[in-house]
Amino acid sequence: MIAPVLLTTGLAVGHGGAPVACDLDLVVEPGEVVALLGPNGVGKTTTLRTVAGLLAPIAGGALAAGEPVRVGGTRRLARAGVAFVPEGTGLFAGLTVAENLRLGHVPGRPHDPDGALAHFPALSRLLNRKAGLLSGGEQRMLGLARALVGRPLLLLVDELSLGLAPIVVERLLPVLRSVAESTSAGVLLVEQQVPMALTVADRAYVLNEGRVVLSGPAAALATRHDLLRASYLGGEVLAAD
To answer: How far is CA 161 from CA 24, 164, 189, in A?
Structure first.
């Protein structure tokens, strides 16, 4: 039996010992796209940062790519196959596309820039252009491509759509589905563009008031109007049937 690439049990996340989300039991299987949804301020980004080893878990436990999640463990988790694409660009604006891609190399992991670029053919024509001169969509492509250079087992993506036109998001989000299918990487996606996220996800969890209040197949959750209300307006989410 193949183990999940992410498994959290009773995980509590937050800052300075103050939890913003508790009792998180999350699972991401290889080759699966899972959306983590909900209104602003409920701990979605904090959860990703904790799984990536940037923040300490407050309680509970988590295994990412088979490694225990602990603060300060970003290099160990990266070598195990965890890649984090943060909100915004996270790029070095003064470096070229090619130079930014080289920074995606993780010692001990496969080094596959060609495979990463195969998901973003437009970047192949821009290798000598500085990242700061790219469009917003191109910068997001580069951030994802850099994360894919090491062939991650678990890809954590925070707010891919932030600041982008909907038509650009419609082109980018399906790439996550393609990555999962072609590489068997598991993807955990935090996204405010809920309808678009649910079209590429297999499953989704909805956070509200610091807890998972709804979970299930993405296609089924797409019919839940309370999900949309909570995601955009912060309204109450009804418990799952």
So the answer is: 24, 5, 11
Q: Which residue in this structure is represented by tokens 């989410």?
A: 237
> 22: part of which helix (H) or strand (E)?
strand 18-24
Strand, helix or coil at 161? coil
User: pLDDT digit string (tens) for 55-107?
Assistant: 999 999 999 999 999 988 899 999 999 999 998 778 999 999 999 999 999 99
In this structure, the number of other CB atoms found within 10 A of the CB of residue 203 comes to 20
The residue extents of the domains of the chain are: 6-89+154-233
43 within 8 A of 13, measured Cβ to Cβ: yes
Quote the tokens at residue 196.
Answer: 């678009």
Tokens of 187: 């993807």
Residue 188: phi, psi to the nearest 5?
-115, 115
In CATH, the number for domain 6-89+154-233 is 3.40.50.300
Give, for 213, the enclosing helix (H) or strand (E). strand 211-217
Q: Helix or strand or coil: residue 151? A: coil
Residue among 203, 214, 240, 210 nearest 59 (CA): 210
Q: Rounded to an integer, what distance in angstroms lies between the CA atom of residue 72 and that of residue 137?
A: 31
C-alpha closest to that of 157 among 190, 199, 206, 193: 190
